[in-house]
Amino acid sequence: MRLFVLGGAGRIAREAVRDLLDYAPVAELVLADLAAEALHEVAAWLDDARVQPFVVSRPEAVVERMRGADLVLDGTPISSNSATLEQILAAGCSGLNLNGLGTEWASDTAFRNAGHWFLPGFGMTPGLTNLLAKAAAAELETVDTVRVSHGAYRPLAFSRAICETTMVEYDPHLASRTVFEDGHFVPVPPFARPREVELPPPFGSATQYIIPHPETQTLARYLAPQGVRLIEVRGTWPAANMQLLRALSDWGILRNPTVLFEGRPTPVLDVLAEYLLASPQGTTTPLYGYALHVDVEGHVGRERRRLIYTTTHPAADGSVPDWADLRAYTRSVGIPFAIGAALLASGQAQPTGVVAPEEVFDPAEVFAELARRQILVHRREAPPEGPSV
């Protein structure tokens, strides 16, 4: 297979590339990025003749170089995703990205008409969380509640894209921060609906709040035949990150007003991002890694059942090669991204249009591939919170 990776010098994209080179039948992989020096550093780290670095200079050149690729992996920041989606369409390719927080669904008809597909958001969350919910729902006749939660233990600003993603999720103007409740998508403010969630060790219990992830919309559609009534998606970051975000919210800074900085009108979050990207507080954290927690309740006959799916990975303390420190986080996201790409590029699923993970993937197949990479899925039953019928 011939693959094209946008934003290939990024920390998460490079982990996906490493995994694809190790596990998929890759004949050629074009690694594209604006940052020439970082791009060549990553190519040297990968040390594989199948990798071809491509320094992005003009949008037209990207489209031309992309043509003929079996699949495009988009690892660029949210703010770039609309432009990169247009490039993928123009090149006549199919693709997927990491976050699914853009306007990808508006391109459904364009991809259908072209006979191609695009999957918005396939990492840990969105992505693997969708499949955990699908697996739980498959054991139930009806589904009442789905509560998706994650703990992303990484620095707030180890990259510009991650810093941007964090700020977007707590943007007070964001209309897509919703919960699905009794057939309606209900907008909520930042830090809404606090809930204590117990993640697997070493992360433990933390208060989590609603975040604007696409699982809310896609699972509402997928689980409609089972009568789903409530879908909530929450997340947390290291405690210091959450403390800072709450203070920024309380002080109105997350509204991102324009300030006069060095004589120029500048969004205040741009100034803050520059500080965080250059500071130890923004680029390090005491605990690294990623954990998911998906809690689904429903019925089998008149019996109410509650299923909880969680994930674990090797310790980030250096005891397991390749999982130390930040790589415990970046591999956790990059590996599912690579697995999804490999399964779709292999032709096992033949969708068209814009599609959600739960529509095209078999959870058991993805879970088995994750286990080969030391990311494990755990299932348990718990006492239901709601009444039986």
Structure in words:
There is one protein chain. With 389 residues, this protein is an alpha/beta fold. The protein folds into 2 domains: 2-120, NAD(P)-binding Rossmann-like Domain (Rossmann fold, 3-Layer(aba) Sandwich), CATH 3.40.50; 128-332 and 360-382, Dihydrodipicolinate Reductase, domain 2, CATH 3.30.360.10. The chain has 14 helices and 18 strands. It has helices at residues 11-23, 36-46, 59-66, 81-90, 108-114, 128-137, 160-169, 215-222, 239-250, 268-277, 280-283, 326-345, 357-360, 363-372; strands spanning 2-6, 28-33, 51-55, 71-74, 95-97, 117-120, 142-153, 178-181, 184-187, 195-199, 204-210, 230-236, 258-261, 264-267, 289-300, 303-312, 353-354, 376-382. The strands form 3 sheets. Strands 7, 8, 9, 10, 11, 12, 15, 16 and 18 form a 9-stranded mixed β-sheet that branches. A 7-stranded parallel β-sheet has the order 3-2-1-4-5-6-17, with helices on both faces. α1 (11-23) packs across α12 (326-345) and α7 crosses α10. The longest helix is centred in the last third of the chain and has 20 residues, at 326-345. The radius of gyration is 20 Å and the shape is globular. The mean pLDDT is 95.
